[in-house]
Amino acid sequence: MVKVTISLDSDLAIEVMLLAGTRSPQDAVELIVRDYLARGHRTEARAGNASDQERLTDRRSAPGEGR
Fold first, then answer.
1. Could you point out which of 24, 25, 33, 51 has its C-alpha 20 to 30 Å from the C-alpha of 66?
2. DSSP 1-67
3. What is the per-residue pLDDT across 5-43, written as a single tens digit (0 to 9) for each?
4. pTM of whole model > 0.90?
5. C-alpha distances in angstroms, 48 versus 18, 31, 51, 63?
6. How many whole angstroms separate alpha carbon 56 and alpha carbon 67?
7. Is the pLDDT of residue 62 over 90?
8. What dihedral do alpha carbons 30, 36, 42, 48 form, nearest 10°?
9. Measuring CA to CA, how many Å separate 28 from each of 31, 52, 53?
10. How far apart are CA 64 and CA 8, in angstroms?
């Protein structure tokens, strides 16, 4: 996996470390990003994705059959 270096404000890094419960800002940011992505995948699995919404919108706007 390719690594990326990102600069953060020290106050932000400390808050992230406290929130994640880690001693390393690198680990803290990684944990929070992984959690954010996992939440997005769980939400998408429950609610569907954008293409599902378009499919449902088209279906609702179509005239009723037999009319």
1. 51
2. ---------HHHHHHHHHHHT-S-HHHHHHHHHHHHHHHHHHHHHHH--HHHHHHHHHHHHSPPTT-
3. 889 899 999 999 998 999 999 999 999 999 998 988 877
4. no
5. 33, 25, 8, 24
6. 20
7. no
8. -130
9. 5, 34, 34
10. 55
